[in-house]
Amino acid sequence: MVSKLVNDPHDVVQESLEGLVLLQPGLRLLEDRTTVVRVDRLAHGPSDPAVPVAVISGGGAGHEPSDGGFVGAGMLTAAVTGGVFSSPGPDAVHAAIRAVSGAAGCLLVVKNYTGDRLNFQLGAELAIAEGYRVETVLVNDDVSLAESEDNAGRRGLAGTVLVEKVAGALAEQGRPLEEVRDAASAVVGRIGTMNLGLSALTVPGASAPSFELGEDEAELGLGIHGEPGVRRIRKAPADKLVHILISRIATEHGIRAGASVVALVGGSGATPQMELAIAARAVARELALRRIRLVRLYAGEVMTSLDMAGVSVTLLPLDDADGDSVVEALDAPTAVLAWPGRGVAGPPELATVEGPPHEIGEDAPGEPDPHVRAAIDAACQALLDSETELTRLDRQVGDGDLGQALARGAYGWLADPAEGDAGYLLRHLSEVVRREVGGSSGALYAMGLLRASEAIADGGGWGDALTAAVDGIATLGAAEPGDGTMVDALAPAMEAWPQGPEAVVAAARSGADSTVEGVSRRGRASYLGARGQGYPDPGAVAVVRWMEAVYDLEAAHDQHA
User: Fold this and answer.
1) Which DSSP category does 401 fall into?
2) What is the 3-state secondary structure (H, E, C) of 326-358?
3) What digits encode the pLDDT tens for the residues 345-393?
4) Is 225 tagged catalytic?
């Protein structure tokens, strides 16, 4: 069985809903049911005048936070949950209607899957026979499928959440059932969603993923249960994938330049927030290129597929007749913690403000020193050439980011080099490192370069500069030789300085080699303990690589002198 954080696969739905009602104030589970209800909206029969219109949704589990996570003031009144990817039965739907519906009636928001449609319809019939007023809207926002007699119709996807929010806001305001139904139906008629899967999903208790997806493949237009999409495509950068999704929606719904839309970016269950934010940025960018006005932009996990990585894009076009009222309903307050629009007050705007200027120092650049400039260029190029090696080593003993971090600094210098004397160049490089590298390596290198520049400015030689740099790095990092850090390469190199450049590089190599069998006591590698043995410290190796480059430059210079 694939590893899951569960007790018994048969109990996942019940136990997850029990956890939900502990986390979301004001919710309860119906006794002997996997149905979440608002405790303040419990009704006493079909003629109870005390409760407003109820909005009820539901479906199979595995799409969390949908649907139970959207129960709360301003959204759903109840959510009926079946098994994983399995519709709840009609009796459960009937019980939910009876629990929260009074004289004002209820609206069922149903996703267009055969099981959901049949069971909610039968549950509604049972309630209607008892005198309850029940209306239904069927959400079919999936644009990947064409309406055809060859399929069961377009499926209900993440756009369902926007329908629930609009209906829930109007119900919270005490609007009559017909008005709530018509508003929800208007949203259903315009909304479009396209899904993209980047990995397969695994059902709790299963021994393997539900489908196979190649390393370089993505599934376009799949459903929320992992059903196959319209086609397999090659993975591509986020901007291009979002372009594909929006193109399909815009074509299907005739969304053209000048239109106004609400956009929802949804994660599929295993999509990091970082990637969702990148996708949201891509949506805003793509709509701007199409000259489509983005009125609201939401992003978050709303309609997931267990542990699948992927993304959905939903577009809701607004028209002149009801656009303002739809936006007001989306903006209306809600107690639901999972609603991604909490705190949204207006159209999204990507804006920056000018920060304080980057100051290298008040001293003039001085007479250009092309030899030092060439040495820095060589060191930076060596770090770029070593990025793959340093990344591989850092994956063994750290978090795998050292190669990229130092490469950012190298690119930063090569893209914006300075001209000036040695002290000025080192100060400029320190600033580039502070700005571009980040992490502990950025702070340590910036400190070393700053101390080296001060030593040169005070009239010291390069041996003095190296000593000052090593002392600054060791003090800031609280490290000393033997701790398994870059100091293991720097300190021996400093000691070997009087013996000449070749001895300096040899000492740095020997110091880096000494970290292979040692146990790191500083930095992220220190958390590994003995598991980090057998690998050199990547920071020490980085020191060796740029020192080798500078030495090679010096040797070539001496040959031509």
Assistant:
1) -
2) HHHHHHCCCCCCCCCCCCCCCCCCCCCCCCCCC
3) 788 887 777 766 655 555 668 888 899 999 999 999 999 999 999 989 8
4) yes
Q: In the numeric block, which tokens belong to residue 13?
A: 């739905």
CA dihedral 354→358→363→365, nearest 10 degrees, is -110
pLDDT tens column, 265-297: 999 999 999 999 999 999 999 999 999 999 999
| Active-site entry in 94, 225, 243, 428 | 225
In DSSP notation, 388-447 reads: HHHHHHHHHHS-S-HHHHHHHHHHHHHHS---S-HHHHHHHHHHHHHHHT-HHHHHHHHH
177-190 vs 159-172: helix crossing angle, rounded to 10: 160
Specify the pairing of strand 54-61 against strand 78-84. Answer: parallel
CATH topology of domain 193-201+214-331: Hypothetical Protein Tm841; Chain: A;domain 3 (3.30.1180)
Q: State the residue for tokens 């739809």.
A: 326
Residue 559 pLDDT greater than 80, yes or no: no
Task: Give 555's Cβ-side CA count (13 Å radius).
Answer: 11
For 9-185, CATH gives 3.40.50.10440
SS3 39: helix
pLDDT tens per residue across span 238-250:
999 999 999 999 9
Q: Which CATH class is domain 370-560?
A: mainly alpha
User: Domain coordinates of the chain in residue numbers?
Assistant: 9-185, 193-201+214-331, 370-560
Evaluate whether 128 touches 98 at the Cβ level (below 8 Å).
no
Give the C-alpha separation, 54 to 41, whole Å: 8
Question: What's the whole-number mean pLDDT along residues 417-431?
Answer: 92
Within 10 A of 19 (CB to CB), how many other CB atoms are there? 10
- Considering the entire predicted model, what is its pTM? 0.81
